[in-house]
């Protein structure tokens, strides 16, 4: 799997000496990809020997990012973000993304790899298509400063080199 080989570059022999508990932190919208692509990616990473964090807990609507999740992001060498059609409809995913981007900004060696799973990278970058629809819904309930943080995080990560996977049946 190409993404696993890409991640190998980021896995460091000195992870434990630098305080990393995980090689990879997976960020994804569970309803979209948990039982397909993300499950396959997680299995491939684990099989290749990467310590990989994947949050499997059911998340409560409206809940802020859990401190344990924030710590897992900070204790990871790499974050792989799987952008899917409904990624931006989840406040949780967007808050997690902001946390990842904040960590990338404060940790010079944190690597972020975006995966665009059946979504065009320009839709993520410019918040068009399903991302525009999700932001229109969020606008009704979310403060403008949070919306701006989400927008900037999406733009920043969409500008990174990543993997575009279009029309991938069953992961």
From TrEMBL:
Keyword Lipid metabolism assigned: no
Name of the top EC class for this enzyme: hydrolase
EC number: 3.2.2.6
GO molecular function terms attached to this record: NAD+ nucleosidase activity, cyclic ADP-ribose generating
Top-level lineage group: Eukaryota
Reactions accelerated catalytically: NAD(+) + H2O = ADP-D-ribose + nicotinamide + H(+)
The TIR domain, residue ranges: 20-171
Keyword Phosphoprotein applies: no
Coiled coil: none
Any Pfam family the entry gives: TIR
TM spans (from-to): none
GO biological process, one term: signal transduction
Keyword entries, A-Z: Hydrolase, NAD
InterPro entries in alphabetical order: TIR_dom, Toll_tir_struct_dom_sf
PANTHER family, A to Z: TIR DOMAIN-CONTAINING PROTEIN (PTHR32009:SF39), TMV RESISTANCE PROTEIN N-LIKE (PTHR32009)
Name of this protein: ADP-ribosyl cyclase/cyclic ADP-ribose hydrolase
